[in-house]
Design brief:
Number of strands: 43
Largest sheet: 6 strands, mixed
Distance between the termini: 43 Å
Helix content: under 10%
Radius of gyration: 26 Å
Length: 718
Amino acid sequence: IGIPSIIITKEKGTALATRLKRENSNNSRLYATLRLPLERDVALSAGIPLQGHLEAQGYALHRLTVSHASRILISVSASSATGDIDLYVSSDGTPPTTTHYGWAAMALGADFLELRPDEEGYVGGDATPGTYIIGAYNAGGDEATYTIVATVGGTPILAPAGTPLNGRAALGEPMLYRYLHAPGKNASALQMAVAALSGNPDLCVSRNASAMEKLPLLSGATDVAAREAAEKETEAFRAAIAEHCTWHRELDGSDTLTVRHDEPEGGPGWYYAAVFTDDASAQFTFTARVVDGKAVPLEPNQPASGGAPTGGWSYYALNLGDDSDHPVEEVSLVLTATLGEPDLFVSFGEKLPGRADAEHDAAKVGGRSAYTLTLPASDLGTATRLLIGVQAEGTPCAFSLTATVTRRAAKGEGSGGSGGFPPASPPPPSLEPVLRLLPATPMAMDVSDAGVKNFEYVVPSPSTDLELVVTPLGGEWESDRPPQSLLPPKLLAVTGGPNEGRATPAHHDFPPQRTLFESSTVRDAGERNVDARGSWTYKLVQSSKRCRAAHADLGTASSAQDCAAKCRASADGCAYFTYGRRGGKCHAERTTSSACPEGLERADLELYALFPPWDEATSLRIAAQDAAPASCAAASGGAGCVLHAAVICDAPPCHFSVVAAPADQPIKLVGQAQRRVRPANEWAYFSVRVAKDATDVVLTMRVESGSPPLCVVGTGDT
């Protein structure tokens, strides 16, 4: 048992030891679980993380008592790929349930809540103590260990080693952490990593706790004058950050900070860190760990930022669990480098992977700096845990790593019950993975079969115009005009709260559904010399088959092109259609991809996919007021608005990168093409991170239209 523990038992110590040894005869480690009566709650101390264990559809209650609290932040994350811990909070003295609560966070994966004094039900904002009861509910399909932490005002969080913690900083409201570095005999380095989910957070680290007192604070004031003063103070602090912080990083999406044991102020002991911003809100994950070869937990769908010195390794552990009702069909690991060319290795079981003994590797795939390693069920076998190693041979590296786990749905799964803890009929876990995009950081994907990849992006607050771009990569796409047998993936998006439905051809806000139609703008994708960039195109995707999905009668058509015109003009939106050469029957198919996840059936019909013009299919510009409507901000429990995006591959194989960012923010170039679209007299910005030993930098720009100049400036701090 590697942590201070208390075991309460009615057995004699010798009997307990004998039983534990017998039950763990095949494992050198002993585990003990303290189970509490369901009606009891466990006290949370501000800034102190607490670990718990929940069975599938299990719940636990926690109690937090506060006073003089300017804001309260509560976050929870699970260590298992099948665990999905949701948060429910009440302040009326009645324990929360899935139907009775004051605040709730029910997104897939890690959840986060922010409680503020101006919200209904807020207590403990003055000298009178207020009590919150917090319910943690495992909506996943398997047992899970979780970490929950609450912080009040500026209380520093005690960061557990190797455990990612969700946080949110705002102008004048930094997140503070303290970490006890205990490297052991090997005198290993300390590493702190921040992965920004929205906004632009910066990192300040010191051995002196008083250094954190110099950070600008709003102290509860929200008027314009106070915010302007805080902005100026934050700018001044950032300008003199080297004077206040022993180590610091001005982050761009994600970054790592490594403190070597031989540095003058390095070594064991306490470290104090602050994540601050001059944005209205910046969400992120923070991880502190010893660089000692131990694996850091990797939560599905949540990006982790990391790095390694020359020849060094960063290790991660992905727990798949043992959910027989929802077996794993596929695991995908997406690695995006921001420095160097790291390689990716995977092993099963307890042995860390290396270059010579990994079961799978994606080392230097095509020389790219971003790629996807996909492991199907046939490769995974009975593995319940993956160990992942990242190393750049001969150079230091920095990167972000994301994992998705796809599971098979159980037959006859229901839609949930009447609520409570647990619900009478628990809702089924979401089986389709969703990848969270880091701001301005491209994520590369390889899709070999027709289907949909789902993404989400936390909209920064206050919102600005957003840009969402898909860039086809490699192969024949590098020519000036792609062959008509290759069509770009479709890009769709919808904005709303964290639990908003995903974007589909029948449910999306961007691009807006069009009802006007000119028949001359639809062309057969098989025709030669047709510019797919400026025309709507259609392509045959299934012959003598139709989807088992719902469909709508569009009447009789004289040809497939005529049927495509009717599909394009459909007021209800139409992305797929069937056409029967005998009789000319034309129907809109209500499916989400040409793979027809609802199933296929034989029919005297041909199934076609309709493709928008190039720019509309691959690039979206979303105005600030559309990216963060008031309705989603009010319904998100303080979690903010989320942009839900779908990239549909109807003409596989599809190799592409997808990126989301404020339109005026530089997008990282990570060794591969990145597409942008700009109107006249508007800039597009990019950033390149250069290694200290680099001898030159080569920038190549291919222009599709217009005559844009390319301007470059260097910064001395990069």
